[in-house]
Amino acid sequence: MAHEFTQLVVAQRGAACHITINRAAEHNTMSDVVMEELTRALRDAEGMPGVRAIVLTGAGEQTFCAGGKLKPTADGSPFALEPGRFDNPIADMFKAMDRCNLPIIARVNGGAFGGGLGLICACDFAVAVDTAKFGTTEAKVGVFPMMILPVLMRVIPRRRLLEMCFFAHRFSAAEAQTFDIVNEVVAAAELDNAVNAMVDKLSANSPVALRIGRRAFSAVTDLSFADALNLTQAVLPILSQSEDTKEGMKAFAERRAPVWPGR
Q: How far apart are CA 29 and CA 171, in angstroms?
């Protein structure tokens, strides 16, 4: 059953489920509610018939996501410890993104800072407008990008990441592309066309292969080389028994485009 959302707009558009952080007036910052709703929205998207990808974006034209909404508590710290709760909401959200069966595209419509940059790195692909600015500027206010480090380290080269975190400087969309944070940089007028083209490329391939492949990709990322090979050699025969694999092999032999059963 689909959930109702107060901080997100969730809509299926063709083969993509579009999830929008709907807080433009607050620069699409991530409150606990936003992160909890994102976690639920990802699960909802997996159950939508015909959906082949998730597109994640922010409302408006200025900001993709300005990070976490930091509000000092009575002792002056922005991070309160809640007895009995170990996982931070952003940790739950990143785990849900990692476990998601669908590829996730970040539609970067504007600036992305702190947790917003982490959100992009937790996605599989990213397309950004050429005017977007990026940064991990937490050190300027006495904290450090702790909660996003695991996802940043999966994407960004080590020395570039050290510069970003320790110098706390902002950088351009063009630089973000050289750091492998985004796949493409386009003019604002071309953003949706570029995202739609990416969805079309994903939709042309087997949904079963992409779903199992995405889970396998996430699973082997942090394994040793030997353990990664053990996992992939176990998963491949399971995938090969799918109707998609049989249709793909048959279509290849018959020199035609496959019609994916999705099973």
A: 19
